[in-house]
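We were asked to recover a plausible sequence for a given structure. The inputs and outputs are reproduced exactly as logged, with field labels preserved.

PROBLEM: sequence recovery
POSITIONS: 364
GIVEN STRUCTURE:
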């Protein structure tokens, strides 16, 4: 795969006239100034001068781009298109609301050679969208995606878990719909309660309870596995410090962790090894149990998975040794291993993104 450098241009809360229950864009963008074309040009030039990626893209984030004043949209897009026309960049993307997509908008995006539009879908449940005050229903989502496909513009989908009225079943339905629609990219975020939002008011009045971190990690891990096995490119899991949220001052509740995606990967690796542990325990029940318990388990994995095998603060190893009474788990690193598979000493292979039966997933 070619390395790609994204130059993020944050347009704060610009373009969006809606007030979703979870959103306080001042805390998300970190600023509220309208970026000038000159400022964006300096930013792009600085990135280009310091980067060495094979492909470069400009991305307008943090607001609903297609809701901006048309003149401002064209000023921004004209600058991006000029860089693309000269080959300095190769990709233009932007984010917006599904109900801010129509034929007139798409003709403008085509004129400036926009490659991808990320849609803030959040959920494919009308009940969840209504409770979240999104200002549109699922019809608007499907219509926007149909229009983007018709015009040959790639699209991305952003999903959120834990919104008001959301459940694991509704969230997994949204994941299945996402897979069916075949987006180019997907982002998954757990819902956080930000200060000065309607959701914060509901939380204080005990009308809304965000999911626990453990629940969010387990649920998002399953969703991530579903998407990855379906060939969907998941480009973000969880919010990070680079999202410019004032996590210490703005987030008052919810499943935030600075390494949320790492916890998700820890969980997926744990599930895979759990199947090996279950098999070993079943084998021990028909043989010498004491010998099986004392047995050293060995797993060979790609270097990028070593930390995930251990888990955050070695929690995976602790859980496995405590649950099965095994004496030692040896971890071997091999760069020739596939990044999606655990290789066990007895030549068993376990896929990290495989979905396992309910008995296994509920045990961990």
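RECOVERED SEQUENCE:
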């Amino acid at each position: 795969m070619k390395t790609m450098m994204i130059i993020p241009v944050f347009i704060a809360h610009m373009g969006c006239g809606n007030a979703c229950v979870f959103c306080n864009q001042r805390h998300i963008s970190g600023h509220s100034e309208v970026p000038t074309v000159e400022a964006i040009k300096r930013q792009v030039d600085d990135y280009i001068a310091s980067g060495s990626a094979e492909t470069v893209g400009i991305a307008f984030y943090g607001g609903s781009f297609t809701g901006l004043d048309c003149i401002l949209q064209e000023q921004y897009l004209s600058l991006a298109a000029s860089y693309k026309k000269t080959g300095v960049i190769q990709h233009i993307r932007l984010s917006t609301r599904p109900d801010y997509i129509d034929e007139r908008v798409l003709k403008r995006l085509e004129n400036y050679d926009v490659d991808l539009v990320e849609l803030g879908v959040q959920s494919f449940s009308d009940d969840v969208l209504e409770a979240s005050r999104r200002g549109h229903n699922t019809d608007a989502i499907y219509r926007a995606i149909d229009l983007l496909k018709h015009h040959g513009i790639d699209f991305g989908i952003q999903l959120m878990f834990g919104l008001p009225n959301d459940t694991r079943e509704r969230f997994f339905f949204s994941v299945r719909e996402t897979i069916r629609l075949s987006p180019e990219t997907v982002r998954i975020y757990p819902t956080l309660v930000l200060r000065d939002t309607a959701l914060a008011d509901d939380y204080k009045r005990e009308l809304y309870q965000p999911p626990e971190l453990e629940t969010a990690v387990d649920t998002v891990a399953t969703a991530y596995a579903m998407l990855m096995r379906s060939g969907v490119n998941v480009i973000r899991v969880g919010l990070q410090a680079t999202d410019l949220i004032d996590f210490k001052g703005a987030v008052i509740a919810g499943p935030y962790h600075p390494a949320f995606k790492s916890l998700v990967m820890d969980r997926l690796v744990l599930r895979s090894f759990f199947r090996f542990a279950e098999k070993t325990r079943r084998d021990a029940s028909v043989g010498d149990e004491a010998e099986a318990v004392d047995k050293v388990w060995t797993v060979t994995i790609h270097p990028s998975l070593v930390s995930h095998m251990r888990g955050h603060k070695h929690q995976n190893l602790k859980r496995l040794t405590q649950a099965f009474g095994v004496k030692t788990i040896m971890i071997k690193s091999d760069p020739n291993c596939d990044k999606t598979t655990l290789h066990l000493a007895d030549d068993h292979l376990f896929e990290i993104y495989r979905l396992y039966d309910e008995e296994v997933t509920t045990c961990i």
